[in-house]
Sequence to fold (225 residues):
Amino acid sequence: MKGIEAETGRRMSEVLAAELPGRPVAVLSGPNLSREVAEGLPGSTVIATADGPVEALRAAFHSSSLRVYTSDDIIGVEMGGALKNVIAIAAGMVDALGFGDNAKAALLTRGLAEMMRLGVAAGANPITFQGLAGFGDLVASSYSPFARNRRLGELIARDTPLEAALALLGSTAEGVTTIPAARALAARLGVEMPITEGLHRVLYGGVTLRVAMDALMAREPRPEH
Fold:
């Protein structure tokens, strides 16, 4: 599972550690669209653990079609896997509205920066977000026609109400619950997340997508880094 517990801001590994104390925990994430993995198409993933048998875990998943990397940055791998779902919803909106490749590239770039800011504030290594669980997963989820969160963004942009869009998907779009959870965690940690905030206003605040987009474009210009 991936995500942020809404009431507490805890990551799934923290929930597991609290419920199953004394047991090693590992997390796996990356550009791993389930349909492609099931078909045996080539791909890569990353397993992160601080106390688990990392070599045995890698051996269990590594194959001729799935290359497995390892990491000790559990926070970064988890935050990347959760937060990319938020940006993927916005990517689907950009596609549905025909805003073009410049807009989508800018969204993914600034979205990755937003993911990294919250991740680092939570204790992650910023380099992790340049890897499979960050940039890699973000690209796959923002471009694949099979990515549920991207598809949800398309439906919302075409004026489908949220509940109806979720029903049409027929499966889970984790970004829907990650948006308010990430927003709350960002407020707690003092992190600015304008894309996440804009999506929250659209999905839960009754703000139109056009108004939210205009607010993002009207933000004060600033240095990129």
Summary: The chain has a mean pLDDT of 94.
